[in-house]
């Protein structure tokens, strides 16, 4: 049997039962003058491998399952009988190989089952991958699962261009195999899944937050919850369902959300009398009750917050953390007697959001106000903190704190008698709403992480330190080994007593090198190596995840040194990210410099007239026109035009007579523009 | 104008604009031989007042809006012109008065607008209520809002019988007006809304958790989250949506939930290709990913938990906290290599649940195992802690911890290679799932609260202590007043430093007596009164909410004394509740004693054969047959039969040859039976 002979050298006999693997041959549409190049797809049996995806990833047209003529020519077998065993380095070099990402991501000891016509074999994923590597060093990896999500204008995760270049040469199959700078979306997806932050889910646009990312959310909750409670905000929980009558009460508001509202129309086997919406946000859910509870000016301020999930059924390309159909957030809703009080809170909350980005996530942001075009529908004004993704040069909205004015209070009759006297007109409450979502995690990942995997700031990382014993060989005495492990345990214990979050890896079936890579993939900020030579000197070695600097630390002072290292790392991560943002936020006064500066991955501060039509014009005029047929590496940039990100609170000085960057009107302030998420 | 003359003495002129009030006259169906008794409904103009509800609450048949003949006879006006001003104590004594609960619950300074034919007036809620009290001391209060919820076999919150008796004689309108022992459902609803724990919502079966109840949930989260994290459980978040394909994978399981699943079929204006379910629980949401993530026995145990909300669209009578269509809970899902490990965890988690009930909520529970009939659909066995509501004599399921066995792991292929050798068969994981919901808050309220309002155990109460200045009169000097307020502030500050949760009430427009009632309504465990006479003796007075005992406390030692008092109160609340449960959990060996004991509000420990049909037979045979036409005060009890609550872990000794309490088979253990929620 061909399979056995091909694989024999690799000692593949393992236990019965495993995940079946299929190998399929596709033939692309080929000009008659040319020889066809077969495409071999190696995938888990349950993975669907639509030909459109194969076409994209292999850069071919209209691939079809090959017939016997082709398989006979290349592999001397029929299409039905073809299997992995028919491949060898010689014939493989004449083909394109496409590998299911499930197999690439499989841990070494996952068991696969290969079927030949007459028998079957089970082998470990490692064996399978070693075999494939022996066939070719240019295997294309396809994430059929992510790609299978229904969306308009479907694009492959791995772009058409530069795919083989984007693939990291020194990457092992277990690590990140895509270069951040060459294929940003593919890289983002890989580090999130391989770093075990999240997983794809079988309902499109929904994702699983695994413990590594949920722990970050818990840190953020802890930080923010404490701060808002000190402001007198109380947590509560309102239902996720809204009747259409209530949802549609505020017209501008619902217009902004209507296209994305998910509707429940059936329960069990009964049709509901009226469809019920799932909240996209809770203004209209809560405010009828604010009207009921607020009876006197002494009931003000009313300050409630909830930690919940909301649903916005977007039809655009979903992206983990950044654009998801269900997401976790907090939404605060407050009502005040005066504008001054409301306004003060809006800015206070915005500062807390800045704190989450800068103090916790080490992501610098710019504070400002949204333009009328971009503000919250139905509100008075919106403040925002805006981040920057250096790799793509795009801006990203961080979190928003809205002053709703009296618009909702008039709509819902949230009013009190006038404290100045019963003869004075009643007063409508001044309201705010403010929200921050799990999007922050996506921003953090995009800013800091690298080609080795995640890089997570110490203050939010699920684990801050990992302890790994090293240098244990066959020559190590039992006594030495015991001493190493005892030291590891002691370090773990002491650090935990100091409230650090510590993990360790004492497994004996993995090498220290493998463990290092694994910890780097997951972004654990500090790795402590405990080995025999160090112990003789009463030291251990600490390696930072962000810049890989090594520090030798005395066991007498390690608690303080490790705490200090973590704080230094936190500060330096922010400083580095800030330097990048600062050097890519540039002042552009003339329109002819605008698009070239955008194309150099900058966000721009430009004098602006404040006119909404001019804002639209800037967006249109800065969009790259599709004058050639080239597809872009990303669905949005750089063909996308520049949006106004915010009018920064911190303003460059406006020169006398300064005109708008785009039109002839006088500028009234600088506005920050950029391509954005 | 009649209205002015009737109300003139009460000085009612207030600001313009208020909530309009309507007064309607209804005429019930009356035998020709009898005089009709008009029903006057006083309600907010927007409150719908269906005649079916009026019929129930006023104990009359078929009330219709009265015509001129009746209104002329009683009020000397036409039906259209009738208004509140036409009422006086004389004619009111010949009518039944029904008051909208929204008015009864309104704070004193809420502004109402009364319209006569020719003019309108605005008066405060207090004035309105004083006026109504002057007309009659037997006003029926109707919660039209709660009653308007669509459900089969709708029953009024206030029962048909004993309604006037249930009304508390000494209750002011601001306080609880229904007696716990005489109208338990009406009382429950009133203390929850008046105590500001929750509010009704305009989607039936959904309720708002206000800060007072959400804070209790936060205490529970804190307690449980810390404990499970020590077990190695990690928090995560899975999507709320499930595809029907995945939901329906485990047949027994889905059969249990299918009739209650809410389906999203539309997003914006697009029909979805396939309806998507909202999770009723997350077994089938999570387990496909467990299968993916668990590749080796080294990936076990996998222990995840999430704090989320789930939706079960029940069509039965909804009840705040106890049966709601959306509820908050935690659901833990773990996978283990061995049954022993899974089994150990099931019991460990059950003990934590018992801890939440007994240590935090001061509610005693009985641990045990569910019968086959009552266990979790698709699981191996279910453990439970069962509570008891003394007022109704009914049992209530507290929280359940399930061992799922290998049923789901086989269905979802959650398996690992055998660690004993690759030649041994692969192993399916042993799984558990366990959940505790906000139902716990409802149980706590039912067990402890009284006719003055909520009684909340100190360990979970949003505020543990309220500081109230007393004895400030017109004779009090400015200096004395300052000293009292300074002492209040000092006490607040010191207690906060000791991590107690403290609030205060320094308002000058309410009397101390009003503040006491208000704090009692909300269930704040300890009230500290600071007055001039006490201060001369360097003391303050502490009053416990649960038994109203007063303690004089030295200002030199108040921090410790108050902490001690709170702990004593916590312990005594549990002890009292335990004494009640213990004295109403009785051993019944003979069937003839079974139903009478149930009717005496007991839960029963009876020897039982373990047969599922016998269990059904016990339920049927203990249900009260509808031999008279009397309607029950509660939709379920006592016509309801006795369910098996659990097979308690702590068993009475089974006598040799003991037969089943119901059938002729030998008993295999004692089972706890009871009417239940």
Automatic annotation (TrEMBL), chains A, B:
TM spans (from-to): none
Reactions mediated catalytically: tRNA(Pro) + L-proline + ATP = L-prolyl-tRNA(Pro) + AMP + diphosphate
Q: Name one GO molecular function term.
A: aminoacyl-tRNA deacylase activity
Entry GO terms, CC:
aminoacyl-tRNA synthetase multienzyme complex; cytoplasm
Keywords, A to Z?
Aminoacyl-tRNA synthetase, ATP-binding, Ligase, Nucleotide-binding, Protein biosynthesis, Signal
According to the record, the residues making up region (Disordered) are: 619-643
Q: Look up keyword Protein biosynthesis and say if it applies.
A: yes
Q: Which domain of life is it from?
A: Eukaryota
Hey, what's the signal peptide range on this chain?
1-18
**Any GO BP:** prolyl-tRNA aminoacylation
Q: Which CDD domains match?
A: ProRS_anticodon_zinc (cd00862), ProRS_core_arch_euk (cd00778)
Matches recorded under Pfam families: HGTP_anticodon, ProRS-C_1, tRNA-synt_2b
EC numbers: 6.1.1.15
Major enzyme class: ligase
> Aminoacyl-transfer RNA synthetases class-II family profile domain location, by residue?
205-457
Similarity annotation: Belongs to the class-II aminoacyl-tRNA synthetase family.
Q: What is this protein called?
A: proline--tRNA ligase
